[in-house]
Amino acid sequence: MKALDSLNISGSEVLPLVEGGKGISATNGASAGAWAAAGGVGTVSCVNADDFDENGEVIPQIYHGKTRIERHAELIQYGIDGGVRQVKDAHDIAGGNGRIHINVLWEMGGAEPVLEGILNGAKGLVHGITCGAGMPYKLSEIAANHKVFFHPIVSSARAFAILWKRAYKNQGEWLGGVVYEDPWLAGGHNGLSNAEDPLVPEDPYPRVAALRTIMNKFGLEHVPILMAGGVWYLRDFEHWFNNPEIGLVAFQYGTRPLLTVESPIPQGWKDALTTLKDGDVLLHRFSPTGFYSSAVRNNLLRELEGRSERQVDFRKKAGLDEAFNTEVMVGKKRYFVQESDRAKVLGWVDQGFDTSMRTPDDTLILVNGDQATGIREDQKNCMGCLSQCKFSNWSQNPDTNYSNGRGADPRSFCIQKALMNIAHGESIEDNLMFAGHSAFNFATDPFYSNGFVPTVQQLMDRIVSGD
């Protein structure tokens, strides 16, 4: 394979290998520090990052506020405290090598105050901010104010062009790189647009080439593109090296670093990665953000699939719509459905899904009693982990009375709970197990044979070799 040349990223020459930031506690100071120490770019996830007590134990994020607004304030403080701690740990482990980035979702609750708090609390220790899941127009301003490079995550040339023209051109000197995240292959939240078919993946090469063309038009030839999503064997991307259509390029790894000695995820999660087969990762739209996302199709996702499958349109009264005059009882509740749906509803009730829940789209879903209780409890305990949440109908905007304007949607789930649980040792079947679509390679790549788990340094050496 061709030699992998170093690249200037966030103000320093480093290996063009970047650790992807992975949600709640799946990437922390230990993993990011090790990645930077090995000469690359480590990324601390600053989404509800863990803080530690004087004994080195994780401080549980327990919420005491009686209202969502009060719990939202607690969430922000937890995020700042944990983020500062993790960045300091990464800095110490890196020993002055590589670069340290932090990763936030723009649509996470309190993104701006959390970012400001971490950058102030870990002043001078953060070299770059990676940010996606939305259109983060204020990212460049925040980064420039703190003299930190910013790396927006996009999935199309069009998205970057909008960001650049509306905001980023004003602080262009702090644009450290543009992350192109393949919306069909990346793990976590994905940037599929309404014009793109989730079932028809597109080759990333022409899409990245189009991004480079736009960037060059804006005079950004010197700014690298960070290819993310679906990157496993670097030899598969050898034709991208020193290619003028692609320009300066680095490669971001999200899934492979999960299975390293330094990775903070629980052992059960690591073990499960080695058993995945092609097709086990599902691109779905159950996330309360409203975005597509990719995760292992476990019991949680199968339950969410079931909720949406057991769904019918309904009317509350007869006569409102002539097509909806067929009466059906679910428990003690009476609904009017289309005649063609009556047998389906009664069949689901017979199967034990005898509790109805209404959605904001004037449909019913049928669940069992325990599922309904769990859904309502999770909605009640909402702490505003997103800027707006379709599951609980929360919005952090006081002008809308902290509501997203729609009813709570039981077809979704509490993502903060599901990510916190799996990251801290709870069931990998009943919580959200984010992974990229190339995760099946853990079971077939000879590097991981006989249960071998590499250190970050060993993994990076392997990647550089092309494998």
Strand count, sense and barrel status of the largest sheet are: 8 strands, parallel
| Apparent shape | globular
Mean pLDDT over all positions: 94
Structural class, from helix and strand content? alpha/beta
Task: Return the CATH class of the largest domain.
Answer: Alpha Beta
Q: How would you characterize this protein structure?
A:
Strand 6 (128-132), helix 4 (139-145) and strand 7 form a beta-alpha-beta unit. 30% of the residues lie in helices and 17% in strands. The chain is globular. It is an alpha/beta fold. The strands form 5 sheets. An 8-stranded parallel sheet has the order 3-11-10-8-7-6-5-4. It has a 3-stranded antiparallel sheet with strand order 9-13-12, with no helix packed on it. The model has no long low-confidence stretch (mean pLDDT 94). The longest helix is centred in the first third of the chain and has 27 residues, at 68-94. The chain is built from 13 helices and 18 strands. It has 2 domains: 7-264 and 442-464, Aldolase class I (TIM Barrel); 299-423, no CATH class.
